């Protein structure tokens, strides 16, 4: 014990500097872990988390036997996979193409324009898509109606709605997604390109042998992070864009937890169980992803 | 002569280069159009009113919507409140996070490995929405302006990338400052902070944009309408009719049965401040992201 205090005293300033963030994480990240016990309890308002009776795995049994849970799970995976398949490669392709531009000034202008959508909120995005794609007078939907004869039912048909979700998500995220790759590209030495050109390597060869290997760590890390978010989905977007007609087509885990847990139902037990299930799958995905990435490419998060 | 020089610098030298560049620029011009088009429509609609001339609706230019937006007390006061929240929470986040990251970046700090694991756990595994909600309520942060500021004082991700940045600064700087008799607080403030503007700018941008655009905290925890942020007001204006997503019961009122130009004008007013942040931090941007992502 004496030794412990001696260590603290030696670097007391450093520990003091560390204290606020350690304390903040304790309160706002570690204390909620205690709340996870609700997944195994029947929450009673008056008794609080601690006083509510244990019910074992009842909440999970209830959850897994609910056909709507299966639907929500499939929706979550479906929407996330579509976002991943379309949204993940795009920033990489764009950065490679940008890297081939001759004028740094032109490149910079395109960069800034592509960043624009990052800055708007999901509320604004939902408002703009509503105004552009609604079936009554949406600017773009009216154009589509002239071409196809009928307005597209973006806000009442599940498939069209999911297309709109993925499209607007990719629209908002792609430009900003290039940032990490652009940062990685600045660390590639220009000498490599020069040497390759002298050796007679064409544009395509330079991309394959210099640009892509330089981007590899960023490509791997982004993939691991995107995979780990698979179960989480994009709550902000879906919550602000969907409506009652689309609940069973576009409800994801998070929107369902919010709707049933905090909204009308107040079913804290079952929704905490669902949240725990989601967090565990997320943890598993990131650990597996990191393990495989380390084994195959040597790059990883840690 | 001038013209060919221009072509060379923008499109390249050989015929193949020029053809490639032309296609490449064309793709990006299309993309840029897609990115900008919705913004143009929003601004245009915000300045258009429709005059009824003999049964036909005639579009006309008008800034009436902006006059309306600025005259509404609810919008104006939540705008000011949001500015305050963004400044306060971003400052707190930067102080807590960079200070902690500096301490973590000292290799001789005892228990460094344990602190790392402690932080990493919060990154990998979250308590989830319901436990967090109940905790905030039990801490009496609900319906309290502090709920916008205190819970976001730091984050595992930002701690780790700023720690990585500090580690890229040579230790010799710390040692020579120590020889001059400076303590850690002083070394941090006078040596490390000035050298770390790239990462500080990146964090400031992330946190400030996130806060300006935060609607969830207000929807989840705030009942007092005077404490709602600009995005909550926007949501009530934009998404009220079509959607029934309103478990918070903040509801709608007749004030917000609005015409398109007013909705769009509010979007413009609520979006311009956040667009203004970027030019200030742009200078540091790429460097900050790059050095933050370098690992030990």
Summed up:
The complex is a heterodimer of chains A (302) and B (296). Chain A is mostly helical. Chain A has helices at 2-10, 12-35, 48-51, 58-64, 67-87, 89-99, 104-115, 122-133, 139-148, 158-185, 190-198, 203-228, 235-241, 247-250, 253-263, 268-297.
Task: Considering the chains and any ligands shown, give keywords for the structure.
heterodimer; A: 302 residues; mainly alpha; MetI-like fold; 0% strand; flat; B: mainly alpha; 2 domains; two-stranded antiparallel ribbon; 69% helix
Verbal overview:
The complex is a heterodimer of chains A (302) and B (296). Chain A has 302 residues and is mostly helical. Chain A has 2 domains: 1-30, no CATH class; 63-297, MetI-like (MetI-like fold). Chain A is 75% helix and 0% strand. Chain A has 16 helices and no strands. Chain A has helices at 2-10, 12-35, 48-51, 58-64, 67-87, 89-99, 104-115, 122-133, 139-148, 158-185, 190-198, 203-228, 235-241, 247-250, 253-263, 268-297. In chain A, α4 (58-64) crosses α16 (268-297), α5 packs across α10 (158-185) and α7 (104-115) packs antiparallel against α10 (158-185). Chain A is flat and about 75 Å long. The model of chain A has no long low-confidence stretch (mean pLDDT 92). Chain B is mainly alpha-helical. Chain B folds into 2 domains: 2-65, no CATH class; 73-293, MetI-like (MetI-like fold, Orthogonal Bundle), CATH 1.10.3720.10. Chain B contains 13 helices and 2 strands. A two-stranded antiparallel sheet of chain B has the order 1-2. In chain B, a hairpin with a 2-residue loop joins β1 (48-53) and β2. The longest helix of chain B is centred in the C-terminal third of the chain and has 34 residues, at 260-293. The chains are: A mainly alpha (302), B mainly alpha (296). Chains A and B meet through α2, α6, α7, α8 and α10 of A and α1, α2, α4, α5 and α6 of B.
